[in-house]
Queue: 4 jobs
Job 1
Amino acid sequence: MEFVRAWEYCVFVLVAVLGLLQLVAAVNGLKGMLFIRNRPVTVLLSLAAVVFAFWWFFYRDDRLNTVMRRTGLEGAQQFTVFCWTTFAALVATLVVASLLNLLVYRHRADDPEERREGVYQLRYVSWFEALREAIKRRGEGRAGTHHQG
Amino acid sequence: MLGLIIRVDQSIVLWISHLVGQSSVLDRVMILLASDYFLPVSISLVLLCLWFSGGSFKERDRNQKACVCSAITIGIAMGFVLVANSIWRHPHPFQDMPQLLDPVTNRIFYPIHDPSFPSNSSCLTFAAAAGVWHFNRKWGYMMLLPAVLMPLAKVYAAVYYPSDIIGGIIVGILTSYFVAKIFMPLLHVPVEVGVWFLRTLRLG
């Protein structure tokens, strides 16, 4: 008897979260998280990724009428897989986007003071650069998130 | 009183279960909504989206606190459900009315083994929505839609009685109130430290 396996759930969550993070980054202008710097293309591709993930998990091979009506992963197992996969997708997004920024785009945006705050620093720099600046600032004895614009 | 509630519950479930098999489109929609994966993952993705949204620092701070509140509420509320389930083993509609098992429950969902009261799916969805609502009304109201749809699909599948759903909703909402008004202000420092840590890592 076929049922939902952990690896299938993991792939589903990974693709959906990767797509969603790109979508959120494009909508909120977080360039440091983007794989592709073209906003309409990113929105389109990320929506396609999320829709594909849901289609693949729920509809391929008529799974809605078979495996979805059977017990599969336990709640605790689902929670664990979801958390680790989301974390992996987030780290992968930040690392890949930083590498792309370093190797392909090589572009640094304007440097306004307000970019010091949290994840929105990724509007201006890549994650690697943001981390480096945060560590540097901490080394200078100044708070990294003191500016709340 | 309990007898009256059970009679009302059973008549509502019997009335709704008559709809099963009449429209294949409705059945497929209900299979999707009742699924263990569709709405829980969708709600989690909405929370992830909320975490990164907001135009100003103040708005983002509020959204991130909404996510934290929602996550803590879900955790605590599911703990309450577990405790309630271990104290009182209430049967499911398909156990009280075995004639519904094959044509209704097995057609839409599957016969679950956990006790019925309070419903863990309504508790989870309402805990998520109410947790967000305390910090962001707009997103909280938006999350009411999946919060209502999943329990509705479970009643359609004769997996829960309406009173189980209401029980889950009450547990979810009361827990969110407890978390937003008492737990989070009480644990203000660890919450702020956690959020500060994520902001330093540029993840929040």
Job 2
Amino acid sequence: MKEDVRRLYEEHGRSLLAYASALLRDPSAAEDVLHQVFLKLVAGRSSIEGPPAAYLFRAVRNTALNHIRGQSREVELDSAVPWLESPDASRETALALQSALQTLPADQREVVVLHIWGQLTFEEAAAVVGVSPNTAASRYRYGLAKLREVWK
Amino acid sequence: MTGPKDIEARLREFRPRRPAPLEYHFELRRSRAPFWFAVAAGIAVAVLVGSRVKWADRRPVAPAEPVESATLGSLTTLALNDPDAFDAALTRISRASLPDVGRPGGAFQQLAKP
């Protein structure tokens, strides 16, 4: 396996998995999407253009959206699988935050995840999502405001 | 909790779960590979081996052509990793192992006799 791909996986795997989980709401499908992206890199069927993090988040997004389009019907979501680890190591705390995140509109949720756990700037997050930086920042603010209401 | 900074700080205390090691998924992907690839490779090897045994004593002495060694494992690996190379290998092997149907006095001509 290519060392540089392994290094990218170690470096960005957590945040990419969080992003895919936020998009798909299905942790096992999210993990599958993540590995499709990396398997393509290892096999040389895709190559990184530009900053690696931005490329990887875009690739995960495109693969996740393809996955959603490929679903012929709504699948039963396994909401009891945490994709976040809480500071107190409590599964319930992690699931409570995930549930709160699920109440956000998808476009707000993904910017929140990209900025908080992907550590992308609004410019970078905007490029991943395909909107202007102002729109990304606005979605983030609305997302946080709603999260403050629903997440106790 | 009052402002966005507070909730940001609280969110950042959470950490995304670590995905399974990449190697694990390589193995999983291999085990999930289309079953028919393995079946096709197995059938191809069985046919090739069978035809060698059956036709060994009927084949004319032909100019020595290097026969590619093929095992089920090597063909399966090839089929999974590089389908085009797998096809090419089967073509090469079949040229060296299958009977020459156009050979004068060969099996097909004998069978075609009324």
Job 3
Amino acid sequence: MRVTDSLIQSQFLAAVSSLESNLAQTQNEISSSSSFTTAAGNPAAAGAVNNYTQALAQSQQYVTNSNAAQTRLSTEDNSLSQVQSALQSLRDLALEANNSGLSDQDRSAIATQATQIQNTLLGLANTQDGNGEYLFGGFSTGTQPFSLTSTGATYNGDQGQRMVQIGPGQTIPDSDNGNAVFQQIKTGNGTFNVTEPTGAPANTGTGVVGATSVSNPETYAAGNGQYTIDFTAPGTYEVRDSTNAVIDTGAYASGGTISFAGIQVNLTGAPAAGDSFSVAPSTNQSLFATVQNFVSALQPGSDSAASLAQMNNGINGTLNNIDQALDQMSNVRADIGGRLNSITTQQSVAGTQQTQLQSNISSLQGLDYAAAITTLDQQNTTLSAALQAYAQTQGLSLFNFIK
Amino acid sequence: MSDIFGISVTALQAFQAAINTTGNNIANASTPGYDRETVNLAANPPQSNGTVSVGGGVSVTGIGRAYSQAATNQLNQSQSALGQLNALQNYSTQLDNLLGTTSGGLSTALQSFYSAFSDVANAPTSTASRQALLSKAQSLAGSFQNTSSELDNLNQDVNTRITADVTQINSLAQAISTVNKQIQVGTAQDGGQPPNELLDQRDQLLSQLSQVVGVSTTTQADGTINVFIGNGQPLVLQGQVTQLTTVQNQYNASQLEISTAAANGNVISGSITSGDLGGLLAARNTVINPALNQLGQVATAISQTVNSQQAQGLDLSGQFGAPIFSVSAPIATASKLNTDATSATVSIANLGGLTSDNYVLSYAGGAYTLTDQTTSSDVTLSGNGTAGNPLTAAGLSIVLSGTPANGDTFLVQPTAAAASSFKVVMTDPSQIAAAGAVQASASNANTGNATISNPTTLDAANPNLLTAATIRFTGPTTYTINGGPAQAYTSGGNIGFDGWETEISGTPATGDTFTVGSNVGGTGDNSNALLAANQQSVGVLSNGTTSITDAVSSLITGLGAQAQEINTAQSAQSAVNSQAQASVQSVSGVNLDEEAASLLQWQQAYQAAAQALAVGSSLFTTLIDSVNGTFT
């Protein structure tokens, strides 16, 4: 082919310009340590990297979320553990108060301590998190959830439970509402409750309710749980159901067990004729009402055997309620522990996932330095060879030889 | 004797011309468009003295031009194709740099925005996290606005370059026409000998023209050429030059089209597909505007989904959430050519059906047709265009102010203005609706162990949504809502009423009650913020198959693939163009070594001819001297 001077010039310029552009591209890749800097370099990979980057950011957000949940749950757990120790102290006080031979002054001192514990419990139930939100208010985190009343406490929150997303499709509650924790504590043994009659006339004997239990759940479930134990004579009782029909009768001796309809009730003392005890399914009672009832039971009264028995029954009820409350706290704390475990698991899963995503991104976008440096070296060599070749051939002209 | 003088003189003249030609070649070795010239020599007819014929010397029959019409045409075509690709590449590369980065830019702004929603969910009453969300919303809006304003700048740049190209085409056409006339005259004057320099000049003008716009030519018998562009629109025809002008697009005054000044200003943009001008038009139609539309589609999707989630929840003051974003509704522009003033209003009927294409709505023969401009195919329309029964197609709802005149058209741009108009309208962070509208509670008197889940809002527009409703179990497997008819209970089944839905699971006891009612005051609730934070991965576009994240990824991939394809085509065409240049140069270019050899050759020939003259002279002297001796 016939070659002309201007063609040599323009082709040389085009070649050098292309080599320089390639060199700049490789330099750019090395300095940004990425195999492509814009999507045109590798469109499919760029789209995938975008997806992975979004997934990575989301995963990091999940970790942020779970840290936030962890803080709230730890605060809640800490509050509940303090509630537990307050309840233990209360339980000790109740046991102490149950002793016969205490003076009104002693009881009054116990009542004062119980009131202090009530205030401690109130403070704990009104715990705020780092953002000033009430932990036990449900969704109403701006309103103080509990305020004391003469019969216990009012719950001003709601039953909402805030969820936090800690993983793809995985949400966990970051708190529990105060109603579920403090207000819904079953009375009695958790299934049924045996009490003295609430209205007049009060029992005149000294019968005190001891341990109660369900001996046969099937039989118990067959009835509606409402019974009355009536003492027709100091040693004889009959059990009536809610239709007032007598379903059982028997003889009673102090410390004996009365069994009927799958129920076992242990009684001590000497109930008088006409005394009665009602059996009813457990209901929800506020923890604060329990403390208030305890304080009320300790109010000074006559030292008659009957009123002491009444007080013992009241305190026994309180002890039952405290045990139920302790169970409740344990259950809630176990639940929180489970959630904290899920968070830890999820954080470790997120860690693995993030490593994987980062490795995906770097395998798509990461630069093979060895290859890039080799390419850079080659391009450099080619460019300098091209420049040198041009310089050498430029001297070649016939005119130089025609002298 | 006189022969030697005559012959030598013809030779000296011829070689002088040859040396001049070679000198001219050397002088023009670097002149663009110069074609190497050669002297055409021919032996003069012999003179006979009766017995033998002796040659009569040499004469110059003409100066030839090394020229290949085929190679030149090929180069012109290749330059047009390269010009088109260069213009396209310029814009696709800018767009790729603007949007094709996986770090920073839109992707990051988007992710930060949704993460900020998660942070609000973590601390729904914290003003700091709410304020942070609004700031992230601002930077997302800023990202959309900046990108779309960059794209607008690119469109402006396209307009400026179209105007410059049209001016250049007009002046080149005028120059070609002028040279045409000079060639016609020159050819006639020189007795049919073509004026080489004028031909070179015209070829050079054509070459320049072909870089701006693809041309085809026909050569006339008198040496003039006719030049056509596009689909055969004459630019230079029989000495007549058609002036091109730029006119505003019939729908969009901000986009220039090319028109022939004659014939009532026909718009010929559609037929110009090559050269720089073709590349500019293609960049606008296939690179810039589609990107703007796709960006708008994402902006519309974000705005709609965020705002509708807002509307389902309650803000800190217990009000339903106000919109966070606003975007422009789809635009419908009536053509300038419409004969009546009917206008069209377009709104989005269904986000899932929304595309990033533009449509032309035309009314002819009593019927509406909606044509997708990208695919050039018609879309099925339903409705009649009245407010009561709007035209619906492609996720759009179109209402016309009246019946258009026959032949009227409207350009419907569903998302073109969305990105530039995407802005944050919320200023008060307490208006972020983090809480759900309704909450549920179980009565403390319940004796069963059934629990109720946090209800979700299905229809925020239900007027009774916030009215408390009581679910009462009339038996272990039946319940009533507000004392209504008994319904069968299944543990974990959905229970819906008044625009909400919830689940009760477990074993309820007869008489147990649950209440679902207003969550006003439930400022610590984050259930609405949780839903909002997840929306970027929910399929909302393409009938629920494409999420916002997917849409951004496919925008990046699409632009990258387009830029890559154009880069590849441009490199290939560059190679083709180099070949074409080489092939023209190999025919027409000047090689200085060759000229040096020629120069030597002609110099020696000239010296030889001069020597022949000297010999003739000496012969003559010899003869005169001999004769002198005889006569003196």
Job 4
Amino acid sequence: MKNTIKVKVWRGNEEGRFEEFEVPRQPSQTVLDVVTYIQRNIDPTLSYRFACRVGVCGSCAMTVNGRPRWTCRTHVDKVAQDGTLEVSPLRNLTVVKDLACDMTDFFDKQNRAEGKFHPTKTRNDDFAYILPDDKQRKQAALGIECIGCGVCYSACDIVEWNKDYLGPAALNRAWTLINDVRDGGNKERLAAVAGDAGCHACHSQQGCVEHCPKHISPTRSIAGLKRATAMAALKGEI
Amino acid sequence: MSSARVETKLWVWQRLSAAVLALCVIVHLAVIVMAVQGGLSAAEIIGRVSGNYVWLAFYSVFVLAVSLHAPIGVRTILKESTDLSPKLIHAIMALLCLVILAMGFRAVFGLFNAGGM
């Protein structure tokens, strides 16, 4: 292992340039460690976003050597090319400054896809009893671990082509709720995800599946939405 | 009709027509491969399809499936890669559908009625 690594970091917002830094190498060093080192020891004006550092919060996603990744769980060893790193903000989101993006569109789209729970019971009702091997519970479980990091959204070419497209994370969230038997909002949700910027815009290219750090397949969830909306349309429900 | 309903129905039609086309293309290619074994000639093709109601029905279904499948696909491409208005895109879809139907059925009925050659 070399003693240092060359790191090119995006500086600016939509307009900007790469700035090169030399950072000491450490064993098991993550890309987030590298960015943090730069900010704390070389240039305190560098802006980036992180919180938990352990792959739970979904705050620290960036583009690393051309691919969107969660930087806190991405080891430099695995992604450095010829001993260099290039770190830039996520694609498909407005850059606020340096490596920090404005996530507003990303989270607004979760709302537009009816990605919120519509309760059907009150606190006075009994618990819902859902067996672990229930078919719908299993479907929901496949997509429920999303941490909202935006990696899939950044990897998606459809988002790039169509700025209104809801994107993999929002559609995956909608699919988990469709399979939640406690939820009563499926009619609105199916109508919300079936518009011209919804699930039918997905080409199943699977860039989201390839890059999701939680190994979720939003493409599978979107395929489920396509089937569910088709059934709803045939029944005249949407 | 709402956008949700339109998009969903177009998706269903495209998938259904794709399923039909998958079968049609396999039969079409298989027949071509089998036919050229004995040498390909116009007379041989006409001899097979002319006056044959089974082939007439088969190729009619083929043309109908293409006339549905292609315009829906072209619509998606135009929506994603151009700034054309939805009205213009729908007009192009309708025109493409009519062109495919006209050319397709001209060929289908041309061969069906070509027995006099």
